[in-house]
Structure formats: structure tokens, C-alpha cells
């Protein structure tokens, strides 16, 4: 089994892994609340896919996306 991350082409944005309805319902308000750019939105999904890989999951789960959003929020709080 190849991981989600391994299926992406190296060095390019690659394809965004598909998100289920629950993940979309989490991501949409987070993008608005944190005023994320399209690039930051894409990076958040890529971080979530890496988290899913580390958990041994084939797909991004809601908890993976929540964790990725928390990292994005933490990044903003510590930026000087």
C-alpha cells in the first residue's frame, strides 16, 4: 500500500487528496476564520494528508484535518 503522500508527485503541488463531507464542513469555516489564502488552504490539506499517512490511514479523516488546522493556527500565533 502506498501512502497518500507517496502518490503525490514530488516537487509539485500534485493533486489535493479528496475530502469527505465532514472534512469539508471543518475546513470551510477554518479557512474563513483564519483568512487562509488558497496556498495556505492547500498546505493545510497536505499537512492533513501527511498526518493521515503517519496514522496509517488511506484517507484524510476529520481528526487529521483538525490537527492540521491547529498547526496552522499555532503558526499564526507564534509568527513575529
Termini separation = 41 Å
The largest β sheet comes out as: none
Helix fraction by DSSP (H/I, runs of at least 4): 55-70%
Query: What is the residue-averaged pLDDT?
Result: 83
Q: Can you tell me the residue ranges where pLDDT is under 50 for at least 5 consecutive residues?
A: none
- Judged by helices, strands and strand pairing, the structural class is mainly alpha
Strand-residue fraction? Answer: under 5%
| Rough outline | globular
Radius of gyration in whole Å, from Cα? Answer: 12 Å
Count of DSSP strands: 0
How many H/I helical runs? 4
Give the ordered list of helices and strands. HHHH
Helix/strand layout:
Blueprint: H1 4-7, H2 21-34, H3 38-54, H4 62-78
Helix pairs in contact: 2-4, 3-4
Describe the structure.
This protein is mainly α and 80 residues long. Helices cover 65% and strands 0% of the residues. The protein has a domain at 26-80. It is built from 4 helices and no strands. Helix 2 (21-34) runs parallel beside helix 4 and helix 3 crosses helix 4. The longest helix has 17 residues, at 38-54.
What would a concise description of this structure say?
The chain is mostly helical and 80 residues long. Helices cover 65% and strands 0% of the residues.
Index terms:
4 helices, mainly alpha, single chain, globular, 80 residues
Amino acid at each position: 500500500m502506498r501512502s497518500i503522500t507517496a502518490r503525490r508527485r514530488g516537487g509539485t503541488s500534485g493533486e489535493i487528496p479528496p475530502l469527505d463531507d465532514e472534512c469539508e464542513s471543518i475546513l470551510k469555516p477554518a479557512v474563513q476564520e483564519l483568512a487562509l489564502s488558497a496556498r495556505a488552504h492547500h498546505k493545510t490539506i497536505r499537512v492533513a494528508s501527511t498526518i493521515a499517512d503517519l496514522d496509517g490511514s488511506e484517507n484524510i479523516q476529520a481528526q487529521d484535518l483538525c490537527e492540521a488546522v491547529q498547526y496552522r493556527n499555532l503558526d499564526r500565533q507564534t509568527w513575529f
